[in-house]
Amino acid sequence: MRSGSRDAESTGGRDAALVRLYHVSKSYLAGTWALHDITLEIGKGEFVFLTGPSGAGKTSLLRLIFAAERPSDGQILILGRNVGRARESAIPPLRRRIGVVFQDFKLLPRRTVEENVKLALDVVGTPAREARARTFAILKQVGLQHRRHHHPLSLSGGEQQRIAIARALVNEPELLLADEPTGNLDPEMALEILELISGAAARGTTVLVATHDQTILRRYRRRTLRLEGGRLVEDTPAPGSRP
Amino acid sequence: MSDPRALRALSARVLNFGRTALRGLRASPLTSLVAVLTITVTLVLAGAFALVVKNMQGLLGRIGEDVTVTAYLEDGLADQERAALEARVKSVEGVQEVVSVSKDEARRRFERAGQGRADLLQALGENPLPASLEILLAPDRRNAEGVRIVVESLQGLPGIAELANAQDWVQGYAGALSLLRAVGAGLGIVLALATLLIVSNTIRLAVYARRDEIEILTLVGASRTFVAIPFLLEGVLQGALGGALAVVGLAGLYRLALPSLASALTLVFGDTPPAFFAPSEMLVLIAVGALLGVVSSGASLAGGLRQ
User: Is B167 left (phi over 0), alpha (psi -120 to 50) or beta?
Assistant: First the structure.
């Protein structure tokens, strides 16, 4: 994992923003806005929650950030690149610097835990021996090294989400996005998963977690962006951080 | 690329592509089988056609090697006149060699070839066979057009009673061969298009079945090329396997069908038994299979990866 962690909230990390949105809108159907006029910045090393009711636009916003969609209007700069204008060939290299975790895990059932995690290293052509070592290390970090030869479907929901987190982190991404990562898990498992994500943030990874789980929001008390009807209605800084 | 780390990364990718392609084949065995068998059937049909054309062409080549024109001489020609005629024929452009066959030599040849029918000539008493000049053409004239030109030059020469040659036969055979080749090429194109359509749709099913994998690969930063290469490799493997099976199938058919078709084939190919593909031609058939496979994969991906 990347060393040199820092607490962005306490050091004014927004100066070195990794995510910048300027008046971003997204429309899937003419006349209706999934996102409308969103302007925000997320600084390097920040741990931010994105919340709001179902259909508020959380997933759409995350999809725009990892360039699965292009904005209908406005500018998005991710890791210094304008993804709205980037060529298609520029998207894969950008995604290799972003880890993504989904509510439904998105694991390949026919591949082992190790193979699922190693996928992110295969994509960048990591030599086999190094890939195995890094995969083992990250699986150990999420407590699944002893399950590496199992198939995902033989594991619990919490364990599957830990595989997904391991896959998202194995490439040491600068930005980690998680879309309702605890949505399918019981409260105890949900806290375990948040601890892993929080650990990544503590090691310097910028983290944006979409959740509507109030328990988590109350427990972690980080900067929180609130979406409603596609609009950013609240940007609450973490308690104790400078505005 | 001399950087050892870059080399290791490249070999890791190549290994990964190979493993992914094999995993893909194992993951959808029925789809793979359909693709392989479709290519096999196409190549067996096209290969059979190619085999017939190859053998007909071989026969035409062999005939071409000893294309001769025979000039039958008038009876009662004096030796001096015959020598003068022989010299005249030799001077015709396109004639390489002239062999004089006397009436007695013609009789001996007939007796040798007739085997037991020599009594036929004895019954006639006088030798009815004419003396002749066997005219071998120069290599560049050993074709229907060359024969025609030489025959025209010889026609009307005093002392020649009749000219015989295989010009018409050669022309007809060459025409039949051209027709067969054209039909074969047309059939090959139609079969190849049908195969591309069937196999690309079959592979599209495999792409669809693995859309989750494609989505996840894309999410972790795989480029379109990275996603596409294993599918293209699968196409190559399926096509090459289809080609190899077609070679085996054709060899089997050739062995099984040859004895029962021997008499019919003699009519088409002459006395020389038909030949099977040379090893290099078998490799070409396998390569054509691989090409069909990779183009089919490419066509299916063009639609599949856009989603």
Answer: alpha
Question: Hunting for tokens 């078998």 — which residue is that?
Answer: B282
Residues of B in contact with A122 (CB under 8 A): 12-13, 16
pLDDT tens over chain A, length 243 residues = 333 333 333 334 444 789 999 999 999 888 788 999 999 999 999 999 999 998 899 999 999 999 999 999 999 999 999 998 888 889 999 999 999 998 889 999 989 999 999 999 988 888 888 999 999 999 998 999 999 999 999 999 889 999 999 999 999 999 999 999 988 778 888 888 899 999 999 999 999 999 988 889 988 889 999 999 999 999 999 887 655
Q: Do A120 and B9 touch (CB under 8 A)?
A: no
Q: Is the CB of A125 less than 8 angstroms away from the CB of B218? A: no
Do the beta carbons of residue A99 and residue A121 sit within 8 Å? no
Q: A92 — contact with chain B (CB < 8 Å)?
A: yes
Which residues of chain A lie closer than 8 angstroms to B224, CB-CB? 88
| Predicted local distance difference test score (pLDDT) of residue B66 | 62
| pLDDT at position B270 over 80 | no
Mutate to test the interface with A, among B219, B229, B306 (most CBs of A within 10 A): B219
Residue pair A175/A41 in contact by the 8 Å Cβ criterion: no
For B210, name the nearest residue in chain A, comparing CA atoms only. A108
Q: Which of residues 188-247 of B touch A (CB under 8 A)?
A: 212-213, 215-224, 226
Would you tell me the crossing angle of helices B279-304 and B29-65 to the nearest 10 degrees? 140
* CB-based contact B10 A92, cutoff 8 Å: no
What chain A holds in terms of domains, given with CATH numbers, is 45-70+91-236 (3.40.50.300)
Count of beta carbons in the 10 Å neighbourhood of residue B295 = 18
Strand order from edge to edge, sheet including A73-78: A35-43, A17-26, A73-78, A81-82
Instruction: Name residue B8's amino acid.
Output: R
Distances A162 to A122, A132, A173 between C-alpha atoms, Å: 19, 17, 16
A62 touches chain B (CB under 8 A): no
Nearest to A188 by CA among A148, A210, A165, A159: A159
Find residues 27-56 of chain B whose CB sits inside 8 Å of chain A.
27
Chain B residues within an 8 Å CB radius of A124: 9, 221
Chain position carrying tokens 């496979």: B293
> What are the start-end ranges of the H helices in A6-101?
8-11, 58-65, 91-95
Instruction: Show residues of chain A in contact with B11, CB under 8 Å.
Output: 127
pLDDT given at position B24 = 79
The answer, for B14 touching chain A at a CB cutoff of 8 Å, is no
Q: Test A95 with B219 for CB contact under 8 angstroms.
A: yes
Q: Could you give the residue range(s) of every CATH 3.30.70.3040 domain in chain B?
A: 68-165
Question: Given CB atoms, is B264 within the 8 Å cutoff of chain A?
Answer: no
Could you tell me the fold of the domain covering B68-165? Alpha-Beta Plaits (3.30.70)
